[in-house]
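Sanity check

After download, print the first record. It should look like this:
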Amino acid sequence: MTTMRERARALLASRAEVEAAEERQDAQATGCIPVGQVPDRSRAIVSGVLRSVTLRPRDGVPALEAELYDGSGTLDVVWLGRREISGIVPGRRLKVEGLVCKVGGRRVVFNPRYQLRPRPGE
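Expected structure tokens:
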């Protein structure tokens, strides 16, 4: 049962806070680890929504980069040697499995296994 304080907080929450809470709940429902809790140099399965998708060459090799957000944090997902992947677009929900490392202070997974997930309402 929710308390009066929780109801008031929900009513006063910003749109970003509500969306973050929804993303955390969705990631938890899929049995994934929250991005904010993934330790470096470990294999992890995370789930979230793609906020951005960019073609950015790395050392002369094409690389498709996406930012995955799950409400607890962000994770950069990079597919080396790819210019595009069907279904990898901003707003798409995605489940990703791979080795998480830090590059330039950001969490990154290179060439992960992934599963496209339905968008809300699909």
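If your output differs, re-run the checksum step. Summary of this record's structure: The CA atoms of residues 20 and 71 lie 4 Å apart.
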